[in-house]
């Protein structure tokens, strides 16, 4: 892990992966195929890309039952507790409709309405991500979404990881389809004879899933185009090098393009962390992936002061930020840009991935400058309410008509004035 200067920060930032022209065209062909041929196209692409021939896409009750048998009772209990923690956190994000009545009798307000249907993409195949089920489904449920359709790629034997199915069942998700890739995104967006379309698609996936979400955006809503994981650890000389290295590697093992950065005011700690990363890498099962991440997208930045270090963090706007200083809460007001902020020795990033409660679907690639974690608000829409009283109209219609004429919109002005002569009715 290299030690670099603050001036090199811009060169460390990654660009959003928009795929190759070949990949984009392939995704467009898949989407058009699903729009035209529906289930037949989904079967065809599932056979081609996943090596599985499916008669039916929908998960059957016996598959859920087998999933419970595959997990021990203690693991099921852990999943249930995690789901409860995540639900409790998101319950606090609820917003409500409001109405404000003015003295003149006018009523203004905002009506909150949950989306009708949401599609959740859960990565699968060789990996299992029950945490993705919780983080994408629970805020939708708390928001009041009535229909949630989950898709996840099957393994080569046509099964779905037990943890994913148990997690979905714990939440009461009944509509689960074992399909993945761009064909699953297209099926959710446009519907087939066996899958009804949804209004919004959320959840991470590979480059083909990301490109498919880009293509269908506008016909349906999407959450975000998430890039590879990233972490910044901010520490002073009170922090422990072994713990910092472990936390950096927890993200490096995700993906070869994961970004892992350490920002500190201590040159001694920087050297110790550099050595610890190398030592711990040697025993990691996913050593190859983590090593590439550290070599290509890892860096240590030594700053002269904590103010300078915080400024560096804000420029990076990381997905995950750990603050390992003597008084981490004192720095919180200065931190403006981060998807999730982990404060103190015992708040390592994986705690947020699985169990604490806040959402782990977070903005990446510096988009924390203007984006937020996935939340309950992402699954509702807001309608403005306007009910002008007669008195308000009498007091304001001339001003409004003048404003309309300022913009050259005579019909607007006439629409407001059309109530003239009726005020005595």
TrEMBL record:
Residues that, per the record, bind NAD(+): 121, 183, 206
Coiled-coil spans in chain: none
Residues engaged in binding substrate: 229, 251, 254, 320, 353, 407, 412
Family annotation (InterPro entries): Ald_DH/histidinol_DH, Histidinol_DH_CS, Histidinol_DH_monofunct, Hstdl_DH
Catalytic reactions of this protein: L-histidinol + 2 NAD(+) + H2O = L-histidine + 2 NADH + 3 H(+)
CDD domains xrefs: Histidinol_dh
Family according to the record: Belongs to the histidinol dehydrogenase family.
UniProt function note: Catalyzes the sequential NAD-dependent oxidations of L-histidinol to L-histidinaldehyde and then to L-histidine.
UniProt name for this protein: Histidinol dehydrogenase
Species for this entry: Thalassobacillus hwangdonensis
Gene field: hisD
